């Protein structure tokens, strides 16, 4: 059973002030005031949106109450909440233990349509390509490859000056291939299936209960989230960027702390009859 979040609890925003979606000095876009757990479907990026980015994917710190807040919001939304991440679903489960959520992992190459559902995955990248990408990463100091099976992420946060040379080397490997693409992110290049992204994941979820018929809301911070922004905008939904504005977004949340405050507010809001 979930621990009840008291409806009168007032989360604080990034500036330490109480959340008020209508107050002009609050760092929440005005459109946030119309978001409700009973009418919206929630699609949430993780790194850079729910949690702060770290130098290594394994070094992130998950706020102690975040899994509980997400579980409470998912319950209020009748299950219409999904994590949409570059991480694998298995990695997401480890981060947010003991709760599991509907999820799209590896930028849509993995799908779990319900918290207790089976993980469906696109085919793994071919062995020759995977090995070539790893060899490129090994040729740069401070760069490492993260093999996700369906994709490979090449991280260069410890070697930011390598970005241009690393990108050229990876594009040389891909050549004219149409089945995979190189996708940039925060100090990372990812080799992934060309036909799948966070937008295709949102579209898949929105065609199924409990997401179908709701207003989609996507929160993300990176280039990798832009397909998700586009997908919800095309469905009359709401897209919120984190940190800086992005194409197809309707407002900006200051940082992951602000995102968590906003979600806590929604999870604690009194239940309303669905319109």
Q: Any key phrases for this structure?
A:
about 280 residues; alpha/beta; Rossmann fold; Hypothetical Protein Ta0175, Chain: A, domain 2; four-stranded antiparallel sheet; globular; disordered N terminus
Helix/sheet category: alpha/beta
Q: Ranges with pLDDT <50 over ≥5 residues?
A: 1-26
Main pleated sheet:
8 strands, mixed
The CATH architecture assignment of the largest domain turns out to be 3-Layer(aba) Sandwich
**CATH H level, superfamily name of the largest domain:** HAD superfamily/HAD-like
The total beta strand count reads: 12
- From the 3D structure, determine the CATH topology of the largest domain: Rossmann fold
Name the strands of the widest sheet in spatial order.
5-4-3-2-1-10-11-12
The proportion of residues forming helix, as a percent range, comes to 25-40%
Radius of gyration: 19 Å
CATH class descriptor name of the largest domain: Alpha Beta
> What general outline do the C-alpha atoms trace?
globular
From N to C, what is the helix and strand string?
Answer: EHEHEEEHEEHEEHEHEEH
Beta fraction of the residues? 15-25%
Kindly report the average pLDDT value: 88
Distance, first to last CA: 27 Å
Can you count the helices? 7
What is the domain tally?
Answer: 2
